[in-house]
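Project standup — Tuesday

K.O.: blocked on the structure for the chain from last sprint. Re-posting the sequence here as requested.
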Amino acid sequence: MNKFFTLAGLLTFVLVHSNSGRVAAAEPYDLVILNGRIVDGTGAPWYVADIGIANGKVKKIGQLTAKMGKESIDAAGLIVAPGFIDMMGQTATPFMEDPKSALNLLTQGITTINAGEGSSAAPLNESDGLREGWTTMAEYFALLEMKGMPVNVVQTVGHMQVRRLVLGEVDRRPTPDELKQMQSLVREAMEAGAIGVSTALIYPPAVYATTEEIGALVKVAGEYGGGYYTHMRNEGDQLLEAIDEALEIGEMGKAPVHIYHLKAAGQQNWGKMQLAIAKIKEARSKGQQVTADIYPYINNGLGIAALIHPRHFTEGYDKLRRQLDDPELRAEIRKEMESTDGWENWFRHSGHDWNRIVIGQSSDPEYAKYQGNSVAEIAKIKGEDPWETFFNLAKSGAFALPQTMSEANKILAMQQEFVSFCTDVGPASGNRIASHPRAFGSFPRMLSRYVRDLGVLSLERAIAQATAVAANDVRIYDRGRIAEGLAADVILFDYEKLTDKATFEQPDALSEGMQHVIVNGQLVLKAGKATGNRPGRVLRGPGYDEAKAAYNLSTGKIQTETASYDQHIREFMKTHHVPGLAVAVTNNGQLMHARGYGYADIAAKEKVQPTSLFRIASLSKPITAVAILQLVEQGKLSLDDKVFEVLDQYEEHIESAEDKFDSRQRDITIRHLLQHRGGWDRGKSFDAMFQSVRFAKQVGVPAPASSEDVIVAMFSQQLDFAPGQRYSYSNFGYCLLGRVIEKVTGQGYEVHVKQHVLAPLGITTMRIGRTHLQDRAENEVRYYSPGSSKSVFAANLDQKVPWAYGGWHLEAMDAHGAWIASAVDLARFASAFDDPDNCKVLSRKSIETMYSRPPGLAGHDEDGKPKETFYSLGWSNRTVDEENTNHWHSGSLSGTATIMIRRHDGKNFIALMNTRTSPSSSHLGREIDKLLHRAANEISTWPKQDLFKDY
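H.V.: unblocked you, prediction finished:
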């Protein structure tokens, strides 16, 4: 008996102490939600409990306390539910320009949108790709994630998109080869992570497609487990036939079918809704997966030109628009609209009544002010015939909201367990489709009007359909429900106060009552206000192979001793959505680690190599500094020479500037330029090297301004402080240094640096880069930067271009930011100074001068105490202790982030990336700094093999 109690006591001791150890060691939750009424998305009755969220997931449901979380929300009196899924959210592209465009979604509780309706953001042709910055779905997804989004996105590939790329706007069937091209485009999208193929079959040129054509594309999606999502060929007179076609296409492709915004349009067709639902139920009873969604309004929305018979669009909308003033064509179109059926005749569906067709938005100033009025009302105000008003609006591209549906059918549809909900708009970014109140009010209207006020269905059932049902339909099985282990997309709202405010007259009025919205564990709406966080992700479909993700790819020789770098880099790339990265590490002058990670070119699936060339941006400055110091060593230049005494060729331009010239510029020395003490402060004025168009106009030359043009223009610009007074980073100062090198040597800057700085170090592939994609060097990576700019080049001035390819003039940045290089070659450069007595490019004295602390406020604080960090001649420096200093330089341009570190213990680190930012970092070069040190510190034994000989 004593033995029993002894054993039991021992077990108790072990269990209690091991458990208490776990509790004591447990990390706090990132967020704790307390006292909420949880409607979990399953359809089960609500219950009260607390929720603990960590690392983007629901970790615990039960009884928790505020002290258990880094942040807590008291949800007493609020409904806590899974985030809503907008089953027709059109496009995520606005997020790349302005994440704030999600506010209409967040205030409705939407945490995921299904993007793409026949059209899709990708694929694009090469011409459009040069404007947008991507051509493939894989590139598009990468850019979305680099920018970050307030909500998640799932994406379909549009049938109309691939048809236009291969066939154009024509009314004909594709040839077998053309169909294979279309299938290939779908295949790329599915492998990138699209969830299926979508159609919008009432719009040209999709309307010209046969069932067989669509089925052939859906078959490709079906091979990857994707679905078929359709705005059907008809939603009125031939509604039932259109459902039959959708079901047939699903069977042809062996793919689930989802019907966008199910409706029976036109009073003559309202009785078909019950038959439509019965047809869907019959298919489901036979094992075919068929679902649908609706928006809670009886007015639909479309471009007003869609009221015209599609046969008139065979040569494109633009050509038709130019012909709409022809009286004979107008008469023909009017007759068709008034008297024919057998096509999606929205004028007929509206009862041939212009009073029932509301105008949401028009690009014609004459009509834009009448938003929210019907065509009949606008015609009366303007003293026009309604048909005249209609044709004028059709020419301007107005958006119309015909009243074609019945309230009873809306209620009937939403009571079906396979029906989910949509806005049919997505992010509101000034797009004309956002002029329908559904963009801002769909989900609150559904819950407040139909659930709370009319009792059409229970709160639990409505939320289940808006979350779990929808999640299943778009293949995101890790969300749509509140359960331990699932993704933390969670919303909290005041059920009694939840209401939509958007109307036809004010379609952008925000809904009220949504208090908090959490996406992947982060608050994106807090107390009704957007937080600015961008934790949203592209939720990729079943065709995506994660093994091919950028963070899982690497090249270069593996040295087992430096494996810590591989692990840290992959985690870094995954966290920050980096497409491509190269790293080189040296120890005591030997190359210990040289690896490429991810993609040099996403579309071409080219991997980064250790020798891939990257734009190195401001890592160019140490190279320029070395070239200057060489000239000083040779007695051709002094650090204290006045720069405009050296560059005396500009005297005529200085005199021409007259009283605009700041005479203090004559006091600027070479040393001032190298140490960024020249007197220019871009924080107070601007960065001269990014004024390509302004300066070109100023000096009277075609854009963009060259480095010479920039210098001439800057003679009319006042300094921001007296030369030498303090430090302020200046790209323009290094532009001048490039010209100093040219003046003193008689050689071009690039030629001189290659011969005298790079060649002695065995560096042969570095060169000055080029701005445009078509001028990319051999072995150079492609650069990815979300968002767009206006071109600074005369050939397409002010037209939309990707930032990295025309938003600025790279060639003019030669001496301060235009070099392209590999990580390995920069490792050669950095390690050249490890042994100052045997350096091939500078003497020990010059190296010591290069890293010396500048005088005054540049190197000391106001009390005269040396600063911990300071900028010397071409390098940033940080004191480690009294005897040791680390030297580094970072660089960034749109699409580029770099860092080069020379550590005091003989180790050098280089990291080059083909993107600059992430949702959580504005400069990935600086972000990776600590990681490079940490990985090196984890190495106990360094490799014996020097990899420099391999490269």
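K.O.: great, moving the ticket to review. Residues 2-25 form the longest helix (24 residues). Residues 243 and 279 are 8 Å apart (CA to CA).
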